[in-house]
Each structure stands twice: as C-alpha cells, then as structure tokens.
Design a protein that fits this description.
Pfam families: Beta-lactamase2. By secondary structure, this protein is α+β, with helices and mostly antiparallel strands. It contains eight helices and seven strands; from the N terminus they run αβββααααβααβββα. About 50% of the residues lie in helices and about 20% in strands.
Amino acid sequence: MPSRFKRRKRTFWIIIILIVLAIWGIHRYGSLDSRLKSAWNKVIYTSNDNVAIAVYSPRTHRIYSATNAPGHRFHTASTVKVAILAGLLAKQSNGLSDHQYSLAKAMIEQSDNDATTALFEDLGGQSGLQNTFDRFGMSSSTARKNWGLSITTPRDQIKLLNNIFYRSKLLSRQDQNTIGSLMSAVEADQSWGISADSNRFAIKNGWLNYGKAKWIVNSIGYVKNNNGTDYTIAVYTDDNSTMQTGQQTIEQLARVTKSLME
C-alpha cells in the first residue's frame, strides 16, 4: 500500500512538471511570435513598398512571417542563384565539375550573371529550375525563362535555406558545405541586407529595377549569433522608389530580428 501511494505521488508530480513545462514552452515560443510580429510590423506598415519576411528558428522548429502584401509573390532577382546551385547539386550525384565550381563561385560570391546563365542551362533551364522548386517543396515559386524574373515567397525560400543549413534529404553534407561556404564569402559590396549587425552569416542578395515593380530588393541567408543561436531568414521587397529604400527596409527588419532571436 505505501509503495502504491508513492508511485501515485510520483506520477502526480511528473504530470504537474510536464504541465508547467508545457505552459512555459507555449508562453516562451508564443511570445517570440508576437514579439517578432510586433517589431516587424512597425517597419513593414510604415513602408510604402511591398515587404515580406520569414524566419525559421531551429529552437522552436517554427517559421515566423509577416507581410503588408498578403498573397503577393515577388520576383527573385539574383536570390534565385542559390536555388540554381542547390538544384544542380541535388541533380548531380558526383557534385560539381571544376568548371562548374568556378562558375558557382562567380555566381554566388560576385553575383555574375553570365556564370548563372551557364549553370541555369546545366540545370535544365526553366523546367530544371521548376523541378528544383518542386523537389524542395517550394509550392509558391514559379520558374521563368529569364531566371531573375522567377517568382517566390519568403516562406518558400526558408524551405530551401533549411535544406542548406539544417537537415536535408536532397543535399549531402558536402553539398551543404559547398553552398554555405560560397554564401559566406560574398564580396564586401554585396554583404548588406539580412547580415545587418551580424558578423557570422551566409547571404545572397538580389536587386533589379524592373517595370511596374520598380526596384526589387531582396536578401536571404543564415545568421548565427554570438551566443550560439541561429536562424534562416528571407526578406523580399518590391515597388521601392530606389534600391537604397529597399536595402534600408531589409536591414531594419534584420536588426530587430537579430535582437529578438538572441
């Protein structure tokens, strides 16, 4: 009888502890969502441009997002170069040839468009890029013959980035290292954007002055804070009057995100 009582008592306290932990988790991670959206909305809803952001936290295993243009999809501009490289690596089981690697280095680090077109053709052109989007679960992304005019959403880009910086069934560890190392070595004049106030990051930016969309300015990548926390992030904007306007919006969002993710 006493032993049965002790077991019941132990079970009771285990249940209480689990309930407390569950409440703590809901409060902590729920509050992160509300704090991120509150900080983001102060930037997004004071902008006259179309803005959308998505962030993934490996601590919570959640994607957080906000936008002032629900349902809007954005032209990728040069951010699509990450998808082209990831698609090519997923397609070729033996990795890149030496020539392809030199093209990939120019495409990511220098944002070289001729190198991109060559690798885009190796991938299979528009259909190869669409297949890449489909394989990575990027259901809201559409490939275009002019690769820079492909359309996407920040949430879709997070799916791609998570395959590069976290677990992936499509990319080997070597493939991930190849992409990550190139994104960590972009030229200094192209390191603005989601990297704001960070010293450990991997990044690819895109910018294009295009018709009614005016200035398209985007930034995607991975950030690791000094305390060890990390996250993937994608910010897309268009209808900017100048490139600098879009850049400033992205960096404002990046700074508030960093402070809350630490």
